[in-house]
Amino acid sequence: MELIYLQKNNNKYISFFSCCILVKGFERSAIYDIQRENIEFVPNTLINFVEDIRGQKVSDVLEEYQLHETAKEYLSFLEKKEFIFYSSNEFFHDLPILSINEDISEVLFTTVILSQYIYGNIDLFVKNIRQLGVKRLHIHIDNNNCMEQILKILSSLEYSQISNLSLSIPYQKINKKVYENKRLTSIVIFNSPKKRVQQNNEVITDYITKDGTNLFLTQFRIYDIAISINAYNIANNYNLALYKTIFIDENGNIKHTFSAKNSYGNILEDFKEIKTNTVKKLSKLWNIKKDDITPCNVCEFRYCCTTTYLPEKGKTGYTVDCNYNPYTAEFN
Ligand code: SF4
After folding, report:
1. Could you give the CA distance from residue 297 to residue 46 in angstroms, rounded to a whole number?
2. Burial group, residue 262, by CB count within 10 angstroms (0-12, 13-18, 19+)
3. Which of 42, 84, 263, 303 has CB 3.0 to 4.6 Å from 78, enough for a Cys bridge?
4. What are the average pLDDT values for consecutive 10-residue runs of the chain, which has 332 residues?
């Protein structure tokens, strides 16, 4: 059946959809389907096969691989997953790596530990978050009775550019008004007596039995990936995990991540100081792409990984100590 279909397209050329990106890793490869926001793991030999048949006539490929069972399997897989198509045109352009300079936000992603100190200066905090242009904000509050605080913060953020808001709070009764906020996408409730996931309006509430101490530990998890044209473009130009991303601790210190030792400023400072000094210092690491870090440079996740390891400079270049090993495709 598959061969009949292929033979019907005998005179056509094999093309690979430009929205599907091939990423070769050391042990295995991946195809990012950025239209469906999906990742498919494939053997490295399949990537070699695609590179070989791409732009070739179906008749030539059938002749070259006529008795090759694996080649037939690969062709049928690529067709079934809609990674390839047949066309009278010999050539289609690859997806261009676009410039992302049109993004004018100083910072896009922010996680804040909302202490009593920051809450006491909430107007200044919100003013600076708005001026930074933050689009995605995660607020962590370690207070067993914080509904009033949350409602006040949600209302203060009403005129910000934030399009995606998430919370992590200890187990308590949730005020239903919280779920009415259009920007809120998810809540993690730690110290819960039992695990469950619940959806209210558009908000996913994840009840976990663990405490909140491990929520911000840097660790690669398969669901921490971003497959999209925007993420792919950023990953080609910058470090996708760190780019325009900050962590604000309970004292307002601005750092790269929860576990980072260095702080580069304070969110309750004058905005001009944050914009000129803090952002400039932070951005040095934003420019170190995963392509320039070992072992990320051989990892199939390097254009979608959002795990915030800070690259360390050694004698032979930048390295991270990741819990995923791309040389074996296993977790350590
Ligand atoms: S090796 Fe690098 S790219 Fe791969 S999962 Fe770890 S941090 Fe991400």
Report:
1. 20
2. exposed
3. 84
4. 64 88 96 93 94 87 81 88 84 64 84 97 96 96 96 94 95 96 95 95 94 90 90 93 96 96 97 96 95 98 96 94 97 90
Domain with CATH 3.90.930 in the chain: 2-87
CA 305 – ligand 1 centroid, Å: 6
Q: How many CB atoms lie within 10 A of CB 85?
A: 15
| Phi (first) and psi of residue 135, to 5 degrees | -105, -25
302, 303, 321: which to mutate for ligand 1, most atoms within 8 A of CB?
302
CA of 228 to the centre of ligand 1 (A): 17
Ligand 1, atom 1, lies closest to the CA of: 296
Third-level CATH fold of 2-87: Outer Surface Protein A; domain 3 (3.90.930)
Residue burial 236-248, b: 16+ Cβ < 10 Å; e: rest: ebbbbbbbbbbbb
CA nearest to 137, candidates 162, 161, 107: 162
Q: Of all atoms in ligand 1, which is nearest to the CA of residue 309?
A: 7
Test site for ligand 1: of 232, 298, 303, 305, most ligand atoms within 8 A of the Cβ = 305
Is 295's C-beta closer than 6 angstroms to any atom of ligand 1?
yes
